[in-house]
Amino acid sequence: MKVALIGLPQSGKTTMFRALTGAGGHREKGALNLGVVKVPDARVDRLSDIFQPKKKVYAVIEVVEANAPHASEKKAGQSTLDAAFLNLVKPMDAFLLVARAFDEEGLCEPAVDVDAILGEFVLADLMVLEARLERDTMDRKKGKPGMPNDEREALEKCQALLNDGKRLADDAELCANPLLRNYSFLTGKPVIVVANVAEADAAADRVAVLSRYGLPVAGQPTFACCAQVEAEIQELPEDERPEFMEAMGITEPALNVVIREVYQALGLMSFLTSGEDECRAWTIRKGTPAPQAAGTVHSDIEKGFIRAEVIAYDEFIALGSEAAAKKAGKYRLEGRDYVVQDGDIIHFRFNI
Ligand SMILES: Nc1nc2c(ncn2[C@@H]2O[C@H](COP(=O)(O)OP(=O)(O)OP(=O)(O)O)[C@@H](O)[C@H]2O)c(=O)[nH]1
Ligand SMILES: [Mg+2]
């Protein structure tokens, strides 16, 4: 999963990046902040205690800081999103939109900023879509075959939706249309809004502080945190974090909220693999059949998929060991149609 951190200049994107990737967040050379968020998972820890594997691997979410639209350069009716931004965010699965809510003078208007960026996305999608439709019209006039009719129809539906000020994501069916996949429309990707509040609000009720700023807007999932304090938390050694958080009055790090919101927005879940080599969590979308789930581990396992040996995490823990679970006959053999469940511990059988 890939998430782009976006927001207006000086909204706190880099600070939020640190709050997500912590001291271990690796940064690529050059201008881009590119890092990996480890998804904490107590099940991986517990399985590792039991199996004592060589490696313990958590699921990850990749994050990249993308330059935001610069409102000051905006021309009326024209999107300020440049090609570099569009290329960068194309392969992203979701956006984390950081909005500045920490101005001492009370000058910041995060709701206006969020609205402006969402509006930019609508405009950018419309520009792509209208250019494509226009080209198709020209082709047809010249007697060329043009794009398939159903693709044109889908694009026209999008156009109507966007002209109505709506997002592609508002129409789940249209959004899932495979004919539109290659367009990677911005408004088809979930947006999670982070109101970056002042230190004084760091421990405030996450919901109450939002309403003070007129958030959420446009029904987007939104939460408040103080990126500065959250970055400090994640940059501390793990064993020192609880004490610091308690002193700051923070019950749950923003990192956890982000992970939960991303999983929720994208309909994600994790399954597990365990053994002497490694214990590991893998991220898939809910409703994924076993062979495709196997494909996240390795494409060969998907190709040569025979069966999945499955036990639910809770059942495994109740029995305490692999031998006990086997003896109790708790490993199920599942076929190609089996839909993988959150927390399934799976051993894939395959041949290549
Ligand atoms: N008081 C306070 N300051 C913050 C907070 N988050 C960020 N800042 C400050 O705001 C400034 C901008 O923060 P960055 O994280 O660099 O923001 P950015 O969006 O990455 O900025 P650009 O990449 O330049 O667009 C810095 O001086 C930060 O120290 C916060 O939660 N509280
Ligand atoms: Mg920055």
Characterization of the model:
The chain is an alpha/beta fold. The protein folds into three domains: 2-40 and 59-111 and 189-265, Rossmann fold, CATH 3.40.50.300; 112-186, DNA polymerase, domain 1 (Orthogonal Bundle), CATH 1.10.150; 287-350, Ubiquitin-like (UB roll). It has 14 helices and twelve strands. It has helices at residues 13-21, 42-51, 83-89, 110-141, 149-163, 172-175, 206-212, 227-235, 241-248, 254-266, 290-297, 299-303, 313-319, 322-327, and strands spanning 2-6, 34-38, 55-57, 60-65, 94-101, 191-197, 222-225, 268-273, 278-285, 305-312, 332-334, 344-350. It has a six-stranded mixed β-sheet with strand order 2-4-1-5-6-7. The chain is flat. The mean pLDDT is 91. Guanosine-5'-triphosphate is lined by residues 7, 9-15, 102, 196, 198-199, 226-228.
Q: What's the structural blueprint in terms of helices and strands?
A:
Blueprint: E1 2-6, H1 13-21, E2 34-38, H2 42-51, E3 55-57, E4 60-65, H3 83-89, E5 94-101, H4 110-141, H5 149-163, H6 172-175, E6 191-197, H7 206-212, E7 222-225, H8 227-235, H9 241-248, H10 254-266, E8 268-273, E9 278-285, H11 290-297, H12 299-303, E10 305-312, H13 313-319, H14 322-327, E11 332-334, E12 344-350
Parallel strand pairs: 1-4, 1-5, 3-9, 5-6, 6-7
Antiparallel strand pairs: 2-4, 8-9, 10-11, 10-12
Bound molecules: guanosine-5'-triphosphate and magnesium ion.
